[in-house]
Amino acid sequence: MTIQHTWNQHVVKKGNKSIVFQYIINHTPISRADIAKATGLNKSTVSSLVSELLDENLIYESGPGESSGGRRPVMLLFNELSGFSIGIDLGVNYLLGILTDLSGNIVNEEKVHFTELPYEQIQEELFTMITTLIKNAPSSTYGVIGIGIGVPGAVNKEGEVLHAPNLMWENVKLKSIVEEKYSIPVIIANEANAGAYGEKKFGAGKDANNLVYVSAGTGIGAGLILNGQLYQGNNGFSGEMGHMTIEVDGPQCTCGSNGCWELYASEKALLIKAALVQKTAVSSEISLEALLKLAPEDPHILNLFKEIGTYLGVGINNIIQTFNPDHVIIGNRLEAAKHYLNNPIVTYIKEHTQPFHQNELEVSFSQLSTHSTALGVAAFTVESFLQIELVTT
Ligand SMILES: [Zn+2]
């Protein structure tokens, strides 16, 4: 009986502490009295919880704040520099790694490009990047509190990458591999889910309640924020929209099916089509960056972008009809081509999406450019460390 009682009290106290902490994070700087007023907790409870948070260096006190007469209160601030998070976007032909503080401000950044590396070599590049980010992290109370990695594939709840067709990975136990190496908590996420979360928290989707993030890179994935929460499906595999069939008798896809959306609307599709136009093999000379340079003077290339944009519109139309979102955000590599893609996408939607779906619908490109996924996974690890959840009001 006694044990049960103690445990209950502990849970209640822990709950109150996270309420107070979360309130400070969201309303920094704030006084003890204002926290008590807003949370309904009594002043002595707030004071003792604040003392604990101060001792843990998760918050700090600053000089007196503004006050209308009387004794000026001491203000409490979230100590976003008490720890740092690593966010990695593991792409098919690149690694982007960032070190952020606990508020998601980027402190350091590393990037490396490669083509068609086998798993072992990507792992080596990944370890080099993580080691560098850890080594260059500013000193802090908690150090590097977690490593988040976004991958273009299906990830199960144990952090195993089950299937990443464009990387040609099967059953890679990435979470345990990286945790074993660094002894730091690791979160593995689907890159589109992480991207959706990044845009919701830091980017174009801050005000959206039902948001679809279309990650258009080598392949295509979608991340869903539904009713303000990240939706990941029964086992975490939702959003594989790059593999929805848009042509029954279409060419075969790396996933084993035929006529998948990403065969028509991804960066890979663009590069394959560009090689056909230029009558060469897909090579390092044909890159998105090179095509963007050529487009203004080459009507064939311009047409390719239009075609890719139209096909993006085809899939996005299907997504809108399914989820009735308030915001569709297009991100990842093809965000760089937004000036060429926007018109055909918008035109397709205007002409094909049912009018009632178009009410209160925004379609835009990522605000975080290529950083949505890295910021999203960095935020996952911060939240797991702080044990708070994104609260949407
Ligand atoms: Zn497919």
TrEMBL record:
Transcriptional repressor of xylose-utilizing enzymes. Keywords: Carbohydrate metabolism, Xylose metabolism. GO terms for biological process: D-xylose metabolic process. This is ROK family protein. PANTHER family: BIFUNCTIONAL UDP-N-ACETYLGLUCOSAMINE 2-EPIMERASE_N-ACETYLMANNOSAMINE KINASE (PTHR18964:SF149), ROK (REPRESSOR, ORF, KINASE) FAMILY (PTHR18964). Residues 19-61 form the HTH marR-type domain. Belongs to the ROK (NagC/XylR) family.
